[in-house]
Structure to design on (230 residues):
């Protein structure tokens, strides 16, 4: 599958220091609220990408009710460089500990959602990826696309496996299930309630308890009912 970008959970990558080296960047560029570290020496950030990034970040902050400090944004050419810097191969990676973004794109909405969401708290990767897919639609990953794939995948596997063992599932399937479920939560309850789930889970370190407190039903019951209705 096309790698959509990710967020690194602390346990997911061993040997990852909290502050990756930044010496490999060729030059830096400040645009509004972003500090770009550019790894290609002749590269610039286009005005249109800088503008898109600024307004998407502001929109996302408003939707989630958070404020993000200056974003340190490492722009590299290839997924292999993302891997070399973070330990994770992909088009984009956001590190929750430092807030740094590493990406092959100068405007990467998916990673900006991750960047804003880490200010809320951590209900687990299923919700982080689901929220990024719901708020930053990618080509080929509309809600309908994700629902269709989720329906076919969930005919064979229980939805709970994707919630609890996100990392271990086939990643395209896992992204589709998470994206479709979180899109549905937002459609039914609004993004503020989903943001509240992240906040509560961050405070309590208990995503299941936070889910019950915010949505009045268990996560297990909600995902099972949703999967059956697909
Ligand atoms: Zn992601």
């Amino acid at each position: 599958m096309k790698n959509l970008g990710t967020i690194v959970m602390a346990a997911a990558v061993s040997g990852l220091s909290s502050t990756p080296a930044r010496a490999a960047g060729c030059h830096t560029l400040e645009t509004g609220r972003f500090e770009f570290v550019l790894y290609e020496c002749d590269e610039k950030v286009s005005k249109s990408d800088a503008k898109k990034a600024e307004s998407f970040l502001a929109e996302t902050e408003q939707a989630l009710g958070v404020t993000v400090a200056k974003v340190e944004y490492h722009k590299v050419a290839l997924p292999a460089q993302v891997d070399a810097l973070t330990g994770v191969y992909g088009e984009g990676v956001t590190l929750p500990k430092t807030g740094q973004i590493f990406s092959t794109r100068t405007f990467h909405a998916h990673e900006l959602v991750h960047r804003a969401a880490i200010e809320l708290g951590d209900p687990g990767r299923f919700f982080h990826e689901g929220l990024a897919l719901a708020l930053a639609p990618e080509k080929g990953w509309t809600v309908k696309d994700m629902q269709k794939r989720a329906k076919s995948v969930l005919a064979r596997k229980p939805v709970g496996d994707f919630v609890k063992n996100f990392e271990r599932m086939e990643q395209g399937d896992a992204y589709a299930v998470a994206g479709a479920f979180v899109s549905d939560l937002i459609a039914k309850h609004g993004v503020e309630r989903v943001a509240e789930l992240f906040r509560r889970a961050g405070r309590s370190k208990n995503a299941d308890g936070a889910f019950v407190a915010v949505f009045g039903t268990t996560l297990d019951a909600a995902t099972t009912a949703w999967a059956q209705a697909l």
Q: What stands out?
A: The longest helix spans residues 171-189. Residues 10-18 have pLDDT under 50 and may be disordered. The radius of gyration is 17 Å. Residues 6-117 form one domain.
